[in-house]
Amino acid sequence: MVSRTEKFRGSRTHGRGKKAGRGAGMRGGKGNAGLHKHKTQYMLKYMPEHFGRHGFKRPQKMVSAKITINVGDLEQVLDVMKVQGVAVEKDGQMTVDLTALGVDKLLGSGRVGIPIVVSVAETTALAKAKVEEAGGHIVVPE
């Protein structure tokens, strides 16, 4: 049996028409070529959202990501804080300055077993209740 290539010997286009066998000829270019020229109607019909900007990005001065810590995690890292000098023991209570660490808010997940005096800018009601239940209190600096 004669191979396909052999069958087309002597034929100028091998059955592909004028430009179909060369590059991206019959497609009108590769990829998104011509979306503003000869493929405009295709783009308007099937890809109307393709060009332009979509959505918005909030200005960075408006976005504030607060650095938080849970009361359960606070008790676990007290030893490390003692070494750093952020936590000090006074009158049987641990005094912790979270603002010096750069923590903005104290959250209420976890358990507190020892009395802790915490200095932090913001706190949740649950965190405050847990710290006070353990015999400590929260100081909010002005």
Throw out a few tags for this protein:
17% strand, 2 domains, 142 residues, 3-stranded parallel β-sheet, 4-stranded mixed β-sheet, Molecule: Ribosomal Protein L15, Chain: K, domain 1, Ribosomal Protein L15, Chain: K, domain 2, alpha/beta, rod-shaped
Describe this structure in words.
This protein is rod-shaped. A hairpin with a 2-residue loop joins strand 2 and strand 3 (93-97). It has 142 residues and is α/β, with parallel strands linked by helices. The chain contains 6 helices and 7 strands. The protein folds into 2 domains: 1-55, Molecule: Ribosomal Protein L15, Chain: K, domain 1, CATH 4.10.990; 68-139, Ribosomal Protein L15, Chain: K, domain 2, CATH 3.100.10.
CATH class category label of the largest domain: Alpha Beta
The count of DSSP E runs of length 2 or more, i.e. the number of strands, is 7
Level-2 CATH architecture of the largest domain: Ribosomal Protein L15, Chain: K, domain 2
Q: What structural class results from the helix and strand content?
A: alpha/beta
Distance between the termini: 94 Å
Number of helices: 6
Radius of gyration: 35 Å
Largest sheet: number of strands, sense, barrel closure: 4 strands, mixed
**Mean pLDDT reading:** 91
Any low-confidence stretches, pLDDT <50, length ≥5?
Answer: none
Sheet with most strands: strand arrangement: 2-3-5-7
What is the CATH topology of the largest domain?
Ribosomal Protein L15, Chain: K, domain 2
Number of domains: 2
List SSEs in N-to-C order. Answer: HHEHHEEHEEEHE
Helix percent reads 25-40%
The percent range for strand residues is 15-25%
Shape label: rod-shaped
